[in-house]
Write a structure and sequence with these properties.
By secondary structure, the protein is α/β, with parallel strands linked by helices. It contains 13 helices and twelve strands. The chain has helices spanning about 5-10, 15-20, 25-30, 40-50, 80-95, 110-120, 135-145, 170-180, 195-210, 225-235, 250-260, 280-285, 295-310, and strands at about 70-75, 100-105, 125-130, 150-155, 165, 190-195, 215-220, 245, 270-275, 290, 320, 325-330.
């Protein structure tokens, strides 16, 4: 029979302990640090909690541990699959250690990131995961003072707040440029989002091609239609355009669509390279050449590093993790 709301509110931790035949501190550990309790005992206590309908007050300071068992993660948006994949990997890694994930979106707004950091720290999260390494001085100062583990994802930096898991965005742009040049493409363009990681890829692209390329930036989050419009803008500025690197696959798919609308053969007339290797990249026609990064692995490894730190297993080599990238050559370039 379901437990009523009134009955549920009166169930206490001591009631759970008595029903399960264990000490109150054991119930507390099952809630706050489940991996510290023997599996059989943990299963018994969890079953008793479910049967009695006990809801622990995690903010009341009643647990044996002072930890909240909550990790905050801040991403620009979940409308792009690559950030959703990172969150998925992060969530799985954290839940394996008994942590819950609290998620916030900045919409690429630094002021919103600061508000989210304040909210998460105010709720006493045990750790934070941030996207990128570009943050306001106020955010960096707050996180330094808070002394909670922090992982910055999706790029590497010489001065991380704490830890970083990502790849070389500048190097990825250079690899795309080198490939286009190796295919004898000389009239090149770049299409990207007006945000830091995209402009890092542009920097690497320019470092290899030289500055004389056409550039079109769109406001994030970018869409396929943005890619179509950006291609039209580049063609208007450079009719001889014969190679395009896009800072994500969504924009690249838009460029492929734009080429079909303009009757521009790919790759014969224009070669196209994307970034991230979404599932659609291999399935579209022509199949998209792209820079592959493992978005889910970024989240998984970030979560693992936080769990190591929270278990007191900090390692000197864990501050920076470069997961690398791979240029996947398909039909479009």
């Amino acid at each position: 029979m379901p437990v009523s709301t009134q009955a549920r509110s009166t169930v206490r931790m001591t009631d759970v302990a008595r029903e399960a035949g264990v000490a109150r501190v054991t119930v507390s550990r099952v809630i706050s640090d489940p991996t510290s309790v023997a599996p059989a005992t943990r299963t018994l206590v969890e079953a008793t909690i479910a049967r009695l309908g006990y809801l622990p007050n995690l903010n009341a300071g009643t647990l044996a541990s002072s930890r909240s068992r909550i990790v905050g993660a801040i991403v620009p948006t979940l409308s792009n699959a690559w950030f959703a994949d990172t969150v998925d990997g992060l969530s799985d890694a954290l839940s394996a250690d008994g942590y819950q994930l609290l998620l916030g979106q900045t919409r690429y707004d630094s002021a919103q990131e600061e508000r989210l950091v304040d909210a998460f720290l105010g709720r006493r999260v045990d750790a934070l995961v941030l996207t990128g390494s570009t943050h306001s001085p106020a955010v960096r100062a707050k996180l330094k003072r808070a002394s909670v583990p922090v992982v910055e994802c999706w790029e590497l930096t010489e001065d991380p707040i704490d830890m970083a898991v990502g790849f070389d965005n500048v190097g990825a742009g250079a690899a795309a440029a080198s490939h286009l040049l190796s295919r004898a493409r000389r009239h090149l363009g770049f299409i990207g989002s007006a945000e830091h990681r995209s402009t890092q890829r542009l920097q690497g692209f320019r470092n290899t091609t030289g500055p004389d390329i056409e550039v079109h930036l769109v406001q994030p989050p970018s869409s396929i239609s943005d890619g179509v419009q950006a291609l039209n803008a580049l063609i208007a500025k450079q009719p001889r355009l014969d190679g395009v690197f896009c800072s994500n696959d969504t924009l690249a798919l838009g460029v492929l669509q734009g080429c079909r609308l303009l009757n521009l053969a790919v790759p014969q007339r224009i070669a196209v390279i994307g970034f991230s290797d979404l599932p659609l990249a291999a399935a579209c026609v022509p199949a998209l050449t792209t820079v592959r990064i493992d978005a889910r692995e970024i989240g998984t490894r970030a979560g693992e590093r936080l769990c190591h730190r929270l278990r007191g297993e900090d390692k000197t080599d864990a501050r920076m993790l470069d997961l690398g990238f791979e240029l996947v050559i398909r039909e479009s370039a």
